[in-house]
Amino acid sequence: MSLDRNKMLNQVAREDGYWDMIIVGGGATGLGVAVDAASRGYKTLLLEQHDFSKGTSSRSTKLVHGGVRYLQQGNVSLVLEALRERGLLIQNAPHLVRNQSFIVPNYDWWEAPFYGVGMKVYDMLAGKLGLGPSKNLSVKKTLERIPTIKTDGLRGGVIYYDGQFDDSRLAVNLAQTAADHGACMLNYMKVTGLTKSGDFVDGVRVTDVLNKREMVIKSRVVINATGVFTDSVLKMDDPDAKNIIAASQGIHLVVDKKFLPGDTAIMVPHTDDGRVLFAVPWNNKVIIGTTDTAIENIELEPKALEEEVEFILKHAKKYLTEEIKREDVRSVFAGLRPLVKAGDDKSTSSLSRDHTLIVSMTGLVTITGGKWTTYRKMAQDTVDQASTVAGLNHKKCITENLRIHGWLKNIDKSDDLHPYGSDKVGIQKLVKERPELGEKLHERLPYIKAEVVWVTSQEMAMTVEDTLSRRMRALLLDAKASVDMAPETARLMAEVLGKDESWINQQIYEYNEIAKDYIV
Fold first, then answer.
1. Closest residue by Cα to residue 159 from 85, 106, 108, 109
2. What number of CA atoms fall less than 13 Å from residue 403's CA on the CB side?
3. Labelling 141: which of 285, 339, 436, 467 has CA 20 to 30 A away?
4. What is the assigned CATH class of domain 418-518?
């Protein structure tokens, strides 16, 4: 079914009893919980303060991976869980998740045997859900796959396989999947407080950001799945609650394909700050990242710091033959990781990526930490726990083999509409009815006008930024091109939403303000 915000609002207005579960937060975790709860048959409502996956969940490295880094840290259980989830995700959303080859270049004599053995362990842990065996490559074979890698001192490489995906497209598909199973999904609904019956949380106070209406909605259990904003919801429950989130910022630079032609990614296992650095082909561009910077100030639109940009440019220079200059960067985007504090650990790169599930004395259920790859397992654990807190009949989780909205097995990667999966036919139908909608919005990017109409009418895109950043990935792929696309995008959206000229102008202005921070 389509994500129709007005219909969903009416559904909430008509509901005068209790929801089984209210989920606060529409990132990967909250969306996963909504899919799990709704597919079990619980009456489910999800509330997101901005747009689905606006925060961390649209700003990842676009990898569905076991996490080679966690293997280094000895966290085998997390790697095992992630590798299993990676395998399930490829089966459940084949239109968005695919097999990606990576090469670890070797410049020291010990690296080939060391990383070779590490990757063999990785293969072994993946078992029958593995994507292909890792192996050592000669210098010649390494250069065939990555012609732009520095040859000075190169001894070869180790090739291994992981998954790659489109994060915010998957988020939209999860919102649709939850809706397909009867969940009510609403963006731009800011939870401003919790309501209690005695000492027990029994609902939320909400403001509809788009039309400034306030309401109180009741539920048998409230789930806090707000990522880096976890602490603010915990404080709504208990003003004296201790902060549990240590936010860490990671940025990515996006450059043209010429810096890394071919379809093999590079993985550098050890940078100056102890992080893994990736250069990955994505949507006909290359994403390079990421950094790890502890952040005090948690905001919805984090900005890349000057030293982070320098850090990535400096490390890219060590491995690529052609130096990436600032003017080569098409876009820079920053995201915050919701890492859970472990005592007084100062370094965020060593904090665990395991997820943390907490039930407060008041019955508020909080799920935080974790990573995109394990969103489904996090959701399963959360709904198991929440159904107990709510006193609901226990129903079995069915998401392990649940096809995600848009599921399409055989897709043509060269077709620009392939990320829509089975919904692609809807967009093609629009073009048939109105041929002018087949025109591209910008020569440097693959997006057409029909996509704007589709995401506005079917995927709850409410602003130009929702459309150009998360439904289509223009802002992340080429920020300047996306600015050029904004006026036409606003006009097409206004047509669908029944908005006037002043809305169009306001949207263009707001979009330009956001896009500034994506241009280096």
1. 106
2. 9
3. 285
4. mainly alpha
